[in-house]
Please model this.
Amino acid sequence: MLKGVHQKLEPQQTPAFFVRGASPFSRMVFFCALSIVIMAADSKLNYLSQIRQALYGALHPIERIANIPSELFRDAAKYFSVHNELVQENYMLKQQAFEQKVKLQRLNTLQAENEHLRSLLGGDIPIHPFAVLGDISHTGRDPFRNVVIVNRGSQHNIQAGQAVVDSKGVIGQVTRVYPYSCEVTLITDKNLSIPIQVERNQLRAIAFGQSGNTLDIPYLPTNVDIQIGDKLVTSGIDGIYPAGLAVATVTKIEQDPESQFAKIISTPIAQVSHHLQLLILELPESKEPEAKPVETENKAAAEKIDDKKDKKRINTRANP
Amino acid sequence: MQTPSLLLVYTTFFFALLCQLFPWTGQGVILRPDFMLVVLVYWLLRAPHLCHIGTAWVVGILVDLATGSLLGQHALAFTLTAYLALSFQRRLVLFTAIQITFYVLGLLFFARFIILILKLFAGNEAPSWHYFWPVITGILLWQVLRIAFGSLARPKSSRSE
Model:
């Protein structure tokens, strides 16, 4: 009788008579402590970014396998697209290219003129950034963050901090770079802020990402000159985003007389969810601030300072 | 009811990782179950000699890498969940299938809740109730696993004795 009962219970793993190894509680405590240490190291000390990159690179083949079904689906859709549609699209694209070529002719002359005027004024010539085209491979898997993953990585010379745009406006910034992909944080993410300028009156401000796919512009007084429908463009003072890229349009203004600041909400112009391609702009080269000719009243003092600088330069050259 | 081998355990983990890495879009992102967590809980309850708290930690680190979240968040949550799962594992023989389902529901909810707390500590804003949808879809995935790899509940014939 007893033997029969034993046989029936056999599929269930019988607990070992002697407990081997550490107890579950001590294991739990050990691994919890380990995770907390790793979390602290990852968030505050940035030691782990290299390790994370390497491990993510190891995950890349698995990710490629996981992407195969959707890629196949996409390719199949391409294969079965109708001839007529393609011809129409081709015609439209040609027309668009022609229109843009005409505009581009004017742009070149304007750019040359602008550079000439700037050089007359003694200002820096703005750098025309070089861009890399990337495809959005998927949206981020973390529901807490507004990110997209793009199929360009450190193998394509992508660096963290590069600005990302689409044909309409700014999308965001590269925040993490993996060997074959990079993570682009959208401007609507809570942790991203972007220096902006109101196109109408050149008012400078900083826009912060907010929940619900909007941007918030805090710290502006209630009597600020901003209207609904105003276009916000990048101001370029951060040296990351080139000046003049469209960012958002103001959609809502709340002027609470009791509050010191106006509450200004705007919606981004770039449409991340509508297409797959985006441009990753190259970071402007970090130039050393050159010593400009200073027009001071006592030129002698200025010359002395210059002399000292020159000596310092010579010293640093002598002792590399 | 086949007896689980280490190979089977790791194969299921591999497929769970594939599902986790699958590019989900639109509603899928909200409804996507925590594949790795459900598979982990299944093997923890089914074969604790093959899958223990250490496995839970490694799986958590993999999920952290896959989602790009702070390294260690999922690892901590999965470790705590694994401990909770194992502490009642030996009593599961007395449970019926429905009771076990509710037990797993509680475990999945617990893991999500721990991750939520950790995310809030890290400075994220509180999400809407959609955040807990994966618990429900996770239970559906649990049923699939139960059918595919065998139930945890005691076979009916031995209850009559």
About this structure: The two ends of chain B are 20 Å apart (CA to CA). The longest helix of chain B spans residues 97-121. Chain B touches chain A through 57 residues (CB under 8 Å).
